[in-house]
Amino acid sequence: MAFGFFKKKEEFADKLFYNAYVYTMNEDIDWPDDAPEEEEGQLHWVNAVAVKDGRIMAVGDISEMESLINDDTEKIDLGGRFLTPGFIDFHHSPVMRMAQKLQPEQDEDDLMGEEDSEDEMEMEIENESFDPIFGRTEVTTETVDAGEAEEDEEPEEPEEPEEPEEPEEPEEDEDYEEDMEGEPAYLRPSEEFMQAFKEEIENLGDHGITSVLNIRTPNELELEFEDRLIELYSEGRPCPRFYGSLYVGLPVFPAAVKSVLLQRRTKCMEMDGMVRNEVLYIVVDGTAAKPIDRRSLAAMLLETADRGFIFYIEASDSKDLATAYEAVDELRNHGYKNEVIIASDSELDESVRSGLSFDQSVFRTWLPVITGRGFFEGHIDDIGEAMDYMTVVPARLLGLDEELGTIEKGKRADFAIFDEDPYTLTPAELSKAYCDMTVVNGEVVHDVDQENDDFMMDMIMYSR
Fold it and tell me: How far apart are CA 440 and CA 212, in angstroms?
């Protein structure tokens, strides 16, 4: 009997990136015999990466990959350029940058809805409870100065109702923005919104950013940005990965937080990990009108921990930092091992630290600037450390170190490709450097050579 019909189909690569200096960021890899000696602060390189179905199939020397190549394999000669893992950006928010393009007169604090002083603070009074996650609900709302609401004001006599007018039929080309009167400009799905959105997507690709963690953004704005990304993915258009977060800045019913997080996760489940909403971002600020205390914080963490969400807690001062550590310590005491990031400019009081059950409740306290826009300007001097903070460190913080951060077999094929060796740059230069090519899931999302060719062809056609 011939068993050839049942022979396992050979596996061949979809793409082969070769003739490159490939910085794997993986210290355990077997290096080719002709690899140069490692320079201080750098990781060795290989010269080829094979990709299949969006994942890395093999990493090593081109001479060892002949068995993985057939006529259908797309061979991409990088001409001696430098290939690194795709950058994971958690240092600034593309969503916030997009909002500031649409609302240039407002700064980041305005867009985040930072509270003014107590004398100037305004309160929203509704005939139903105000939702601190979603903001304004569909019920009627009036705005009054805090402390100035009259308690025993006599109700006015109701006016005689007027005869309702027959509604006019809307014209077919009526602008949808009219239905959103009163909404901030950055939330209106207008032509300007889409233009700013596309510019931010292109900007990420230009800088080798293949994944982005979005924090410090109004929830409504992030969801609009996320919806546009999902539309592009559904159309088969390559985009960077997007990891969203739910912002909470005041005490909220823990069950409500869990419900919203689960709804966001469900919306992203069909995206093969390209869009995820797994981060609960909590701001603990004792000076807020309604601060989150230790009990409220612990309750939110414990309610959502069993679903594996990531916690990013920003503490305003040393007292708030103690609140965060004590709540996370309680989380650890219940056996949960969720990834936790605590960001604060303050230091933890030793008396608080000595009272913790777990010395490693949080592996470290981060400065907020580490996930802020000025991180590489003055905070890191070593380029090797800066590369770590663009690749392996954020992958670990997001719980994705088995998927991203290094170039290894089985991981996602996300690459940033540069004409200049990134290890010759300063950290500040690295954060602003343009790359020649960006690859997400094995698909080229940015190629400067192809874009230049397209531009020249457009110019030729236009001149005719």
Answer: 12
